[in-house]
């Protein structure tokens, strides 16, 4: 067995240390070592977006990032999206507008949608659909997800 | 005393406070914060990782398995093969089930499990898998079901004889599991009355349910033989009973707790990893967690039946359909279980036909065993039926909706399978479609419109549940059905409505298999209907008990108390002057009356109301590439009564997009070697957000009088017409209706060229 690597990563603002194998993905380390299981595995090939997280402010599929690459970096996951008791407007809108059914893809959609609104606070429906095309949902047909994202964007703009 | 099934107490004039609203789902909060625990989110102390070795061959004799070298890998704690499972005769239900989990005599598809390993790490388990030596004698294989029916096809099971076959066909080894005939009247007589006859052969490809959550489970087998099993399933009790059957473990020793279910759509009604994890845990003396990869999900879990339907249909000039003749072929994978008899029962059930013949075949081949998927086997045949109706409507120059109205069934209709329908809403659904904005709007330039109708029986079945009133007046419900998309909330709403309390004072949870009696699989659009009846029955039992307690507190006869609007009050002034007692007040005093108050109910629920839908779709077909874009989509469907309209809309919308995927893109691609070539989301491409428009919905409400609130199931109906509606739209766009799914660009392009050659589509 090859030697493990010691990594230090800021996850949702807190410093975490982990020992990981070279081959382990950031997704595996988040879930299996840090037990932050809100980030989901749907494919492990970067096709479904269920494992979306932010790494140093960039939206990534954590299944395609090696854990050692996250050493010294900052990672934001679904567990850090709400501030205390206060849900992020996207979380509130997903609830209010039924933007989720089974919920397995929801963390990935929320992380990806927040990344969209940080870059583009006023996306069109089409822009939202293309930005979120990297996230698969099999339950909702996307209708209520897109409505929730656009509605959250409007609320965040104060519109 | 009559039961709730006999007297559901449906009141068309009842004004609802909670039903018909769409409050935030209680389970939603944990799902937006990442707290919700899905199958793969469980961890136990000392837990091992389990992995499966799978056959690389689609068909081979399993001659020898040697685990000697693999067992020497550091960290490997157990290896299991066929030798670790009790022998059960081939060709029986249990025999098929155990062989589906672990191959015995032969491997039947690429991906068939031949061994499994539990180790301290995934790396160790994978290393061990590579060191297991397996000797195969490779046999010829057959993938396509129509090929598998031919006399010279490779035979999967030498013991198989066709059930329902006549003459010499009944005697020889075959891949045809069953020949099933269903019909009414005399088709020859019917066709003799026809002014127009159309005929076609339609084929549909297997698709995958495509749930995003990978199957995962944790089994913990204790030293005294107790099994704790955590898994994502639509059928905890069914899984338990199957484990009992194939592993010979008492059901009382198997406790299954369902996790949050990350999508199922029928695909999580069959078990794969669960028996392996239990046997590994027993052997390793540790908890074992197993999770499928997406490639394994695609290669080795149930897709949907691929079909070939040859259908002939005749009608009179006035649009009356006079006869239908059909031959239907269903692929089931290596073992029976496609539920194919749904198809002949449902394919025409919405039209009043006098002469119908259906001959259906279920066929085994070297592909993964199919599993259920929304209205198993029905959307496939509706693709053909609704396509031919559209062709007839075009021939006689009739509006396609009018033609369906002309033939639509109403209350009192006796179906081809013998059931006589109570109140149904097909005509109302068609009328709503005619009146909706989408149908009334002109077809935009460059686009074409298709419509199609669908049907599903909706089911009831064995269901059990419990309801407990806490001393603070709040209520908990324990459900035996799985929550596939929000049914816990619908149950809480029905309980709150019946009890007259706010929905936030009710919580519903999912039971483990020790806590309730048998619950049938969560499928067939039965959940909100069946568990809903259990919930209302339990609430009514609680209400009866509340009245008893109030009588005791007031020291009056029980019949002197009535329950209204969430409070007990004296039935009349003759009973005495008492302030009404709320549920909370009575609950608070249970210690001083007769102890806690609970309602419990279990029954084989009957009375499910059939559902009907109309889909309207506008498409644009790129004549250069053959690419179809869905521009506008509307679903009109009878929900009986929408408990939570937002959730009902969500069912409609999700089904429509699954249908778009099945119609335009999704299929399994096999090489000549019998191996699946697209086992991942890159090459098996499901619709993404940018592929589809908003999906408009019209909820029709023709109440089902057999349910206290009138509801009908809505999970399956909305998939059934989807591919037919899209196919009809493409047909109108390019002049020839496609008859093969998926209607992908290369296939549509070939049809465009044919249409131009035939002069039904202008050149250029």
Would you give an account of this structure?
The complex is a heterodimer of chains A (159) and B (764). Chain A contains 5 helices and 5 strands. By secondary structure, chain A is α+β, with helices and mostly antiparallel strands. In chain A, helix 2 packs across helix 5. Chain A is globular, with a radius of gyration of 16 Å. The N and C termini of chain A lie far apart (57 Å). Among the domains of chain B are: 155 residues, 2-Layer Sandwich (Aldehyde Oxidoreductase, domain 4); 231 residues, 2-Layer Sandwich (Aldehyde Oxidoreductase, domain 4), CATH 3.30.365. Chain B is globular, with a radius of gyration of 28 Å. The model of chain B has no long low-confidence stretch (mean pLDDT 97). The chains are: A alpha+beta (159), B alpha+beta (764). The interface between A and B is large, with 60 and 59 residues.
Set out the fold topology:
The complex is a heterodimer of chains A (159) and B (764).
Chain A: E1 5-11, E2 14-20, H1 26-33, E3 52-55, E4 58-61, E5 74-76, H2 89-96, H3 106-119, H4 125-131, H5 143-157
Parallel strand pairs in A: 1-5
Antiparallel strand pairs in A: 1-2, 3-4, 3-5
Helix pairs in contact in A: 2-5
Chain B: H1 28-33, E1 48-54, E2 60-66, H2 68-71, E3 76-80, H3 93-101, E4 106-107, E5 113-119, H4 122-131, E6 133-138, H5 145-148, E7 176-184, H6 187-192, E8 196-204, E9 216-221, E10 227-231, H7 236-247, E11 254-258, H8 273-284, E12 288-291, H9 294-300, E13 307-315, E14 321-333, H10 342-346, E15 356-364, H11 378-396, H12 400-407, H13 426-435, H14 437-440, E16 448-456, E17 461-469, E18 475-479, H15 487-499, E19 506-510, H16 527-554, E20 561-564, E21 567-570, E22 581-582, H17 583-588, E23 597-605, E24 611-621, E25 628-638, H18 645-664, E26 695-700, H19 722-734, H20 745-757
Parallel strand pairs in B: 1-12, 10-11, 14-15, 18-19, 25-26
Antiparallel strand pairs in B: 1-5, 2-4, 2-6, 3-5, 7-15, 8-13, 9-10, 9-12, 13-14, 16-24, 17-18, 17-23, 20-21, 21-22, 24-25
